[in-house]
Structures are given as C-alpha cells and as structure tokens.
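Researcher: I'm preparing a figure for a lab meeting and need a structural model of a single chain. I don't have an experimental structure, so a prediction will have to do for now. The sequence is pasted below. Please return the structure as tokens so I can convert it later.
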Amino acid sequence: MREWVLAFVFVQFDLDLGPVVRGVYPPMYLSPSERKNIAFSSLPDSLRFEQGTEVHSFRIRVYPKSSEEVPSEHCEPRPQLLDGFIDPTSQRGYQQSSLVLLTQHQYPALFTCIVSKLGPLFQSHGVPMLEAACHNIASWYTPSSTIEIGFLGSVLHIELPVSSDSQQLAETGSFDEKFDPAMHLLASSVSFDPPPIHLFEASLSHLWSLWECLVLSEPILVFGPSPSVTSQAIWWLRDLLRPVHPPCCGLPPYFTIHDQDHSLLGLILGVTNPFFEKSCAHWPHVLSVGRKPSSRQGTTTVVAGPCPGWTTKTHRRHISKDRQLLKHIEKACVGKGGRDLPPRIEIKASLDVRRHFCSRTNAVMVPLNRYLNTLIPPPSQCGAESGLARQLRPFNPKDFFASLKSSPSALPFKSSSPAFGLWLAHQEEVIHKALREKR
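Model: Understood. Here is the structure written out token by token.
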C-alpha cells in the first residue's frame, strides 16, 4: 500500500486544544511538529467554509531526525516531502473533522478523486470503510503507465506520468479511447471540477504575464477564498511549468499562518488568510483567484483579501498573447450552459489553455537542449580504444548566448521586445546585480 499511500490521518477540532490528530492508519510515526502541521492544514484558517465536504491539499517537510523513532516494522526511508489531500466535513461552530491522505507522490487528480470518494463514506461508516479502502489500494499494481484500478466499488482509468516533471497531455494520452475528464484521470494534472479557467476568470488576459513570472521564478502570492480553490490553482500553475522543475521545495499548494516550517516558503505562496496580504506586501506579484464580480450582485458582500485579479509592481510582459485563444476562453467563461449539464465547454477551454502553455514551456527549453547537445562529445572521442570516459564539456554562458543569436527561440515575442538572446542575457545581468547588492 505504501507504494501509493503512506497513511490516512483522522483530524478533529477540539474546543480546548484546537485541531488534533486522533488517529493514523496504518500506524505511522509522525513527530509532534508534523502532527501539528497536518492538524492545522486540515482545518485551515479560511473565512469561507461551507457545509459539507471540500477537498484541498497541502505539503509538509519530513525531517531525517524523526526517522530514528519510526517503529521497526516501518523503518524504510521516509520521503523528504509529503503531500496531504484532505476531505474536511461539517461547518465551523459544529463538529469538524478531516480525513487526510498522506503520500509521497504528486498525483493531485488521482488523490483528489480518492479522498472525495472515501471522505463521506468514512464519516458515515467509520473505520471499516477505511480498512476496505486500504485493502483496495494495496491491490493496485502498475504493469504499464495506463492502469485500471478498483476503489470502493468504482473503477478508475488512470495514466501515470514517467516522472514528476513530465507532461501529461490529453492529446498524447495512452487510453484506448478519446480522453474524457469524466472517465479518465491524468494523475499529475489537476482536477477539472470546477473547470480551472474559472479560477483565473478575473485574470484571463494576464495569463501570459503570469506564465512569464513562473518561468522566470519570480515570487507570486496566490490568494484564494478557500483552501480548495487555492490549492487547485497552485497545482494548475505547477502543471503549466512542466517539464521545468520548480526551484526550492517545489510549489506547496497551501500554506497557513500556523505552519512552522518556513523552509517551504517557495516562490509561489498559496494562502487564504488576509494576514498575508499585509505581511507579503513587498512581494512583486499578487494573483487573487476567482471569478469576476458580477455587476448584478449587491455591494453589501464583504470580501476578505484582494479582489480577484492580477496585480504586479515590476513585471512587463515580453511574449505576445494568443488573441484567438484568449477570445475563445473568455467566451467559454461567459457562455455557461445549464447547471445540470456537464461544463464541457469550460473543460475543453481549460485543456486548450493547458496545451498552449505547455507548448510554450517546451519552446523555452528548445535552445537550452540544443546547446546541451553540443556539449556531448562524439562517440569517436570516447571509444573503448581511447580509454576515456564520456564526459560533458563545461557549460559556457557566453557560448550559450551566442547560440541564441544564431538559433533563436521559437517563442513569439512582442514587436517591441528584444530578441530572446539579448533578453535572457539582460535577465542574467539583473540577477547578478541583485546578488552583488545582497552581498
């Protein structure tokens, strides 16, 4: 089972102690700081917590020192980072509890589906349902990248990624039939319920600026009305960045003021507490996810935190927008169908946006890959007769920038923007200047 899921954690809200971990199944050692992080992340600080269930996710760091205290029957090495997928239930002021799935895999689509199915059943039937779920997970196997797995009476059709940084596209999926989000799961992608473009509806025209900031590793504060919306937005941004590996600890999908592990503060911070709007006022970019406020709504509604939209203090976009795609997704957001019908138009538009930015991320990598190939010595220089090991030549920034002039990137830059090589060289100068000033 632990090849997929390490453990399930049951968290309850105690009126005297606050959120408390009540049980871990199967048994697994968690240090006091890990228990506290899990507890507060499971019942987070959010002004909007609706009746019923709402799935969100978070990330915690596992420190090596706690591995010494792991029971002998579970003494295998522990991962450095754990992702938690949570199904909290009930409304604030009444009984509150959460079921947390802890895993070492970054499969948001898969595990969001799992906890959304298991959470309500566990609340109704208790531990026997949890044992049944664990037995189902223990029977899963991976003969290929595309598998069919059984879980609590349902069959899930899943495609697994080659690695955490590899892209999974609907067009290149290995399913035997056309990709359908209602039937198929791309494990490393984000859930399509609600359609992701609704999360960025107030910032659709700024998606290209947002993508540029992601690629350039510029700090972004992501504010959402709920942990579910915030974590889904972070996973979506991570998906657009593939195959580029995010710096530091990756992109933690959700962060609370109670989290003691500030080493997880990455270049993108997903929050719901308005406290961060003031404490992170020096951050250059703020993305407030959500739909555009309707003019038909009354003005008496109080909104905590920044209004939905994109604001930046320093960034100026260099690449050009795809105007046709922008018009397409704006039309999809406005032209909603009936509430009882599946939002196929919005899902298709979300897939189009995902495919577009994945292609642009690949375009960024093409010049680098081309130059790296020139550093590989030919087989004639490292054959068995020469007795030399095959060793890459050292990376030379000047040679790399020179290669950009002769073979520029295929990225469509604005007419007023510099060539890709000059622009990238300028970015390097800015970074070196900032480092010199910091010293």
